[in-house]
Amino acid sequence: MGKELDLREHPEDEYRRRLFDMLSETDVGETVDVVVDDDLDPHLVRYQIEHDRNLEWTYADPDEEPRELTVTREDPLDGDLGTIDVRDLKPQRRHEALLAIFDELGADEGFVLINDHDPKPLYHELRSMHGEVIDWEYRSRGEDGWRVEIVKTAESDADDEDVVTRYDVRDIPKEERHPTIHHRYGMIPEGGTMELIAPHEPRPLRGEFRERYGNAFSWEVVESEPGRCRVQITKEGDGGGGSGGSSEERTGGEGVEIQEELDVRDLPPAQRHEQIFAAYDDLEGGTGFVLVNDHDPKPLYHQFEAETGPEFRWEYRQKEPGEFRVLIGKTEAVDSELARGQEPASDASDAPF
User: Fold this and answer.
1) Which end of the chain is more exposed for a tag (fewer CB within 10 A), N or C?
2) In 10 A of CB 282, how many CB atoms?
3) Distance set, CA 178 to CA 151, 167, 197 (Å)
4) CA 110, CA 46: separation in Å to the nearest integer?
């Protein structure tokens, strides 16, 4: 039986010291069962860096609070980098943890990220927030996970402005801008602000936000000069879906024929997304399947919204503890260019979005 560490009765500023002390007293191959109110992922990566020791950790249920996880002390890193496997985490928690980890890195420090899909949006986010201090190298890309080595090459020039995230879209390939922005916007909390830096005000994107999110956001130009425009987009309360009907509440499954039921509750989290997206790719227009999951798959919804077109449909059929059922399908209808996240042909060559 492994050691036990309950951090719930201790202030957050003591987490790291108590965790590090316990892990340093643990032998290779031994485990520590930890219970804590807040995520420990940044602390665990920091331990690997400072102690040159590999760790592995798994959650009993990554979405439950308090967090219950088992940490295993492994062999020395021997010049390699520590790892963090985020495949068990919800997308929002992934970004929160990874941004916190990168903030703490010193010059020439880094880690290996393991993810279930290409984490390229994170690369754009880190460059936009920290400048040209990111060394990003793919170690592997495939069904067994994407592994990326991320190193901070120098001290960051990040500022302390009160935004959740920032993207300088001038450095993002045009075809990646829409998916990157919508994918990340779906994860920021209500009241959070995303900042965009563009050559000029991205009015086509503002129209697209109105189409997708209705009145549930505010848009403020905080700086405008030749070649540089800074826009802050704040996620507000539910303002109702836009005319495109792509908000979660308005995205129904009308006109979709259910072909099968896909129960992923017995699968590891990393395999769930792979099977769900494979099932979606196999759908014909007008068909769908019912996903059965053991928790609300809302982060999956945001990923679909960011990466698919207007044919995507999502409808909750059941919300019960341990059993959520969601219709996921494709319609045969094709919406307007704007709803597909494309710009009108007349200004596509000039608009930053």
Assistant:
1) N
2) 11
3) 26, 11, 14
4) 10
Q: What angle do CA 280, 282, 286 make, to 5 degrees?
A: 75
Give pLDDT, residue 254.
60
DSSP string of 89-133, one letter each residue: S-HHHHHHHHHHHHHH--TTEEEEEEESS--HHHHHHHHHHH-S-
Token pair, residue 183, equals: 């994918």
The CA-based angle 285-121-165, given to 5 degrees, is 120
Where do we find the tokens 């950790």? 57
Q: What is the mean pLDDT of each run of 10 residues along the chain (353 residues)?
A: 90 94 96 95 97 95 89 94 90 88 96 92 92 95 88 84 89 85 84 94 89 88 95 78 42 72 84 88 91 87 79 89 89 48 36 41
Q: Rounded distance, CA 242 to CA 263, Å?
A: 32
- Helix-helix angle 298-307:269-281, to 10 degrees: 40
SS3 assignment, position 77: coil
Q: Is residue 310 within 8 Å of 339, Cβ to Cβ?
A: yes
* Residues forming a β-bridge with 110: 151
CB burial string 185-202: b at 16+ within 10 A, e below: bbbbeeeebbbbbbeebb
Q: What is the pLDDT of residue 333?
A: 55
223's enclosing H/E stretch is strand 217-225
Nearest CA to 284 out of 307, 263, 262, 255 is that of 255
